[in-house]
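Quick check before the chapter quiz. The format below is the same one you will see on the exam, so make sure you can read both the input and the output lines.
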Amino acid sequence: MKPTDFVQQLLLRSGTAWVLWTLGALSVVTLGIIVERWLFLRARDCEPRALARNIRPHLVRRDFAAAAQELSKTRSVAAAVAAAGLQLAPLGPAAMEKSMQSAVAIERGVLERWLTYLGTVGNNAPFIGLFGTVIGIIGAFRELGHGGASSQAAGQLTSQAVMSSIAEALVATAAGILVALPAVAAFNYFQRRIASLLLATDALANLVIAHVAGHPPADDTPTERGQ
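Here is the expected output.
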């Protein structure tokens, strides 16, 4: 038997069962990722106005260490980025901005973890289900071909078995769509949630930079004229 014939026989004998098991496993992993990402993003969220109110007195006094300590009380993305900028506050606003941009890039990578998986499952799960349906239909028509020379009663039984096999094969397509829908919905929701978090982060970062830029560094001393 040729290797291609062996693979064909294996696929047809298993029918759509292996496709349904695959989709079931993808569904379980997808639900786990959805719950994990929702809890993670919830923990990294914040109210930027409240953070701004808490650190503004320290920024006015140019007590950057106290402001960073205040930000460390929360796990929010905005606080982490602002604290990264405050570490370079003595070097000026330009250094702060670069530090914050680096922190945002790092935080974005953490926030978008597993989103590629959700997008891939959402795009490809229907095709996996459709592949299982095609295999099931091929097997059903092979069964119909093998029973074509039998009696009328046996032919009716064969036709009923074929219709039943086709109906079962279509379940794979429905399962693929069912797995894809929550993955796509979660992917879109998390993308919007991350955009909202980064927008709040940008607002707080700009506020911190504005306070530092509005006052000269503490170690700056005016030079004497003529020197």
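If your answer matched, good. The mean pLDDT is 82.
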